[in-house]
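Subject: design request, 359 residues
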């Protein structure tokens, strides 16, 4: 088999055809800050994607520009916080890179109050004009491009409302929940179309709707509230590019809704946590309809395995999930400070060694 370009390799694998070798990346393209500092010390480099030669790069809308006045919706005298375009305030937590959120919609009661809230303009000036050039430059380097629209509906909604309150709304205040989720969905549809217009190869959507013991909400609740809205976002993007690959992320065990994700147009499942989902079994059950992105455990293999064990798991994933195509290898989340640097090197070395065997 001839050597593919990085873009060809990713698109071939994600369309469930055999690539020349398995593509790879780090989840979300980066390390946590502590491990990033080790990366800089060990390599003298600043960009893991360039250093390790990821075949795929991400673009996204920028969270820049002037903010509306969110002060009526947030506590007075906030200090040491950042406020995003949705009005969600974040304060650095006390544990590594974690943050504490302040939810601006927590105290609202009615759809009428929600209508007065300053939701972000979907394509505000300064947020999207860079996309076309950014995608074109990456394509000129023969790299695959993923357009990120993470925290698509469920997560950004609970970031604004608070998770407990949003879940309560689904039962006790459905008019409010409907108004909030519909507003978020309409914004995401516009943004999804814009990313498709920019020429991304893959649209990365996702919401953490499951824990490691199963769904956070019942499949029936997901089906009623989130499935049709996610479908609408996918259809909006595919109205621009019918061949666009759709990636869906949920941490945890989301097996209960996988057939319905496929039904509404998802092509790629991420991250396929091996602590709660057997990647080889997922391949056997859904490999004719889904590709898989991830599969290397960040709670088990990466922090606690030896370098030889990391290599063994990588080889196993390539032999099972990667059989016939359909795999992009990555840790299932960004790598935490307890991951030994030797295991990071072993992850990439094992992929290179397997590539030599294929060649």
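Subject: RE: design request

Done. Sequence follows.
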């Amino acid at each position: 088999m001839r050597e593919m370009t990085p873009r060809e390799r990713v698109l071939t694998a994600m369309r469930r055809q055999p690539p020349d070798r398995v593509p790879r990346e780090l989840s979300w393209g980066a390390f946590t800050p502590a491990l990033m500092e080790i990366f800089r010390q060990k390599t003298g480099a600043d960009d893991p994607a360039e250093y390790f030669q990821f075949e795929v790069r991400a673009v996204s809308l920028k969270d820049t520009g002037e903010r509306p006045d969110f002060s009526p919706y947030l506590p007075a005298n906030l200090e040491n916080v950042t406020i995003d375009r949705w009005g969600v305030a974040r304060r650095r937590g006390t544990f590594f890179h974690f943050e504490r959120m302040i939810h601006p919609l927590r105290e609202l009661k009615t759809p009428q109050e929600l209508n007065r809230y300053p939701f972000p303009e979907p394509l505000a000036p300064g947020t999207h004009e860079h996309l076309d050039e950014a995608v074109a430059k990456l394509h000129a380097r023969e790299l695959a491009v993923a357009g990120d629209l993470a925290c698509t509906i469920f997560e950004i909604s609970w970031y604004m409302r608070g998770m407990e309150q949003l879940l309560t709304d689904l039962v006790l205040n459905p008019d409010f929940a409907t108004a909030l989720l519909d507003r978020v969905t309409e914004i995401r549809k516009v943004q999804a179309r814009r990313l498709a217009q920019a020429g991304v190869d893959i649209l990365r959507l996702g919401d953490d709707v499951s824990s490691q013991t199963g769904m956070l909400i019942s499949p029936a609740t997901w089906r009623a509230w989130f499935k049709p809205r996610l479908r609408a976002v996918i259809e909006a993007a595919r109205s621009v590019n019918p061949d666009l690959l759709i990636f869906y992320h949920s941490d945890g065990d989301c097996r209960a809704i996988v057939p319905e994700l496929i039904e509404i147009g998802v092509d790629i499942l991420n991250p396929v946590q091996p602590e709660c989902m057997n990647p080889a079994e997922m391949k056997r059950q859904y490999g004719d309809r889904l590709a898989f992105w991830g599969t290397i455990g960040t709670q088990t293999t990466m922090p606690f395995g030896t370098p030889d064990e990391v290599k063994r798991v990588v080889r196993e994933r390539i032999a099972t999930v990667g059989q016939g195509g359909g795999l992009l290898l990555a840790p299932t989340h960004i790598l935490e400070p307890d991951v030994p640097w030797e295991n990071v090197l072993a992850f990439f070395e094992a992929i290179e060694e397997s590539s030599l065997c294929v060649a």
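The two ends are 8 Å apart (CA to CA).
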